[in-house]
Amino acid sequence: xxxxxxxxxxxxxxxxxxxxxxxxxxxxxxxxxxxxxxxxxxxxxxxxxxxxxxxxxxxxxxxxxxxxxxxxxxxxxxxxxxxxxxxxxxxxxxxxxxxxxxxxxxxxxxxxxxxxxxxxxxxxxxxxxxxxxxxxxxxxxxxxxxxxxxxxxxxxxxxxxxxxxxxxxxxxxxxxxxxxxxxxxxxxxxxxxxxxxxxxxxxxxxxxxxxxxxxxxxxxxxxxxxxxxxxxxxxxxxxxxxxxxxxxxxxxxxxxxxxxxxxxxxxxxxxxxxxxxxxxxxxxxxxxxxxxxxxxxxxxxxxxxxxxxxxxxxxxxxxxxxxxxxxxxxxxxxxxxxxxxxxxxxxxxxxxxxxxxxxxxxxxxxxxxxxxxxxxxxxxxxxxxxxxxxxxxxxxxxxxxxxxxxxxxxxxxxxxxxxxxxxxxxxxxxxxxxxxxxxxxxxxxxxxxxxxxxxxxxxxxxxxxxxxxxxxxxxxxxxxxxxxxxxxxxxxxxxxxxxxxxxxxxxxxxxxxxxxxxxxxxxxxxxxxxxxxxxxxxxxxxxxxxxxxxx
Length: 551
Hints:
By secondary structure, this protein is an alpha+beta fold. The chain has helices at 3-13, 23-32, 37-44, 48-55, 62-78, 96-110, 151-164, 188-194, 229-244, 249-258, 260-271, 327-331, 387-396, 423-438, 442-457, 471-494, and strands at residues 114-122, 129-134, 137-138, 300-301, 306-308, 316-324, 336-337, 342-345, 353-360, 383-386, 408-418, 498-503, 507-511, 527-536. The strands form 3 sheets. Strands 4, 7, 8, 9, 10 and 11 form a 6-stranded mixed sheet that branches. The protein has a 5-stranded antiparallel sheet with strand order 5-12-13-6-14, with helices on one face.
């Protein structure tokens, strides 16, 4: 390379940077294309959190900026956006600097993401227009801005409620909803403050402040208001599929099952909006979590139970085979490592972290009545287990149960953890499942089951889900399901039932009145009766092979 070539390269590096659209347009283009943050991040070689930061106002630089601009230009050509209406300034133009400072203070104090709104939305605390969203809810950043409405405004709201309340039984067809666009942006608290849901006000004052008694109590910077978006997303997807296939249930279900994985990832993105932690979708993974061969397994032991009691009490007994509902769905509530796993050795277990651990398990002396918590293992010595298995062993070695000695921890790969990383995702799926069961909607029920079961099974080394590569999470969630089943077996034993069999994630066989121990039903906290058979002396064990899982 000549001197002039080097200069040309230097000039190219310091040339004008690619133009980027405003942050709100970046997010709008991605959502219009039905792309997740993880998909964009994978294409650009960054993390989903970085994409979220770009959509929140930060700008990339250098080569990655050019790539991001190229992507946005392509999306803009496919999905032209309409210019957003200008938001009426709440304060004078020269006070924007203070507003940015308030935003930074709010982020530091609350620890939640703060995003600017293109158009003001009603504050969940006072009902007045707010230009920022904190933890997913529109609200004022400065508590001094969040003030009650004037007495006249409050009185008008109360009077309006009194006027519209008797008209509940009359169809509200004379007042189209489009005449008051601000009403559609109001929170659920406002809708219930003056009239039933779906009813439109006949007064030209759509921003009436809710009564002070209806305001949520709690810290000013947090508004844990229930959202209906993610659960509605599932219902809308099912209805759209039914319409596309002209009501053909089999064709609709086949199409929904085929798209269950990308839809689960889209739902995950939706439920993570405004969350405190970003999901690291493709971290560095230690070799113990990588498959040893293309068709082999890694070195993690999930402690899957496969246990049958060797001897029953004398006599013939009626055995009930119970089915545990939504085993993997419940297991989504578990301690998951947030970031890249870090190696440590010679330290005691830190409950603030989660991951995988090399342990020497304790001896188990209760095989006659309860399964071994680490499952059926033929080889003695140390093994790599997941966070739920380690926590189960530590729990059983504690003074409350005192069933074994504590495990010996040799080394670990862990990261800072939280039990609620997937909680909104789990709740959205659970609510959709509950609604489908109540409506006897088998299409939605099977679709939801496919979403959470395939979400878990494909987050490891799978060609079906390129958006998320977390084999540590996959093992942890599976082990949590096994641990949950083991604790149900312990509960049955402690309540006087005879545990006969524990298999997989969802199969528990017991002798005795199980109704006084477990509620019966189809909910995730309930169990179903799968079969009844007779076992014991002079009885033919007609159980067959009932191992397996609901997934």
